[in-house]
């Protein structure tokens, strides 16, 4: 048993860290010039007009390094909705309350999330500059799947966007903890 554990550990340590891969023969669908970058940890998508946090919930924007640090905090769907409510509550002491001066953050719908997909790339399947280390890309980590507010009521599921491949999946709102990336309509 000890040998099996040792072998598993060595195998895990020998796996390369996944870096974004992009096809050179596919036109970029989310190029750098599509976004306006803020040093406060947000990015404005000029195509959709939406402002996104650059880091998934749990990670923090490090302005000095120009990237997200820390660990994503996966949540059940209802808990994610409650976090959004706490962030937006007047007088809130939540660390993301009025983050980057934005008054109302929300959970995106599935169309908004899928609009982030960079068709030429994967791991992440989004503009890596816009979401500097903000998206989880480890295969098997449910924090790589981002909750949307779009539901399938008849099955108690919500649609998620897979930040690794840009694919869309429905998952139980009760059984899974997924990642959360917040969006705002204001600048």
TrEMBL record:
Pfam families (alphabetical): Lcl_C (PF07603)
Annotated signal sequence range: 1-19
UniProt KW keywords: Signal
Record-annotated Lcl C-terminal domain positions: 41-178
Protein's UniProt keywords contain Signal: yes
PANTHER family given in the database record: LIPOPROTEIN (PTHR35812:SF1)
Protein's name in the database: HutR like protein
């Amino acid at each position: 048993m000890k040998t099996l554990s040792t072998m598993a550990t060595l195998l895990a340590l020998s796996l390369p860290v996944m870096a974004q891969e992009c096809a050179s023969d596919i036109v970029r669908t989310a190029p750098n010039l599509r976004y306006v970058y803020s040093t406060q940890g947000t990015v404005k998508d000029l195509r959709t007009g939406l402002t996104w946090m650059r880091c998934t919930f749990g990670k923090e924007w490090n302005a000095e390094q120009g990237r997200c640090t820390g660990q994503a905090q996966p949540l059940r769907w209802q808990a994610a909705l409650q976090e959004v409510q706490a962030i937006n509550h007047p007088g809130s002491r939540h660390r993301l309350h009025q983050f980057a001066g934005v008054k109302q953050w929300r959970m995106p719908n599935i169309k908004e999330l899928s609009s982030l997909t960079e068709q030429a790339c994967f791991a992440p399947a989004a503009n890596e500059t816009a979401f500097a280390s903000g998206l989880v890309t480890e295969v098997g980590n449910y924090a790589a799947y981002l909750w949307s507010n779009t539901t399938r009521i008849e099955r108690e599921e919500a649609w998620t966007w897979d930040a690794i491949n840009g694919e869309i999946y429905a998952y139980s709102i009760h059984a899974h903890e997924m990642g959360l990336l917040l969006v705002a309509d204001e600048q």
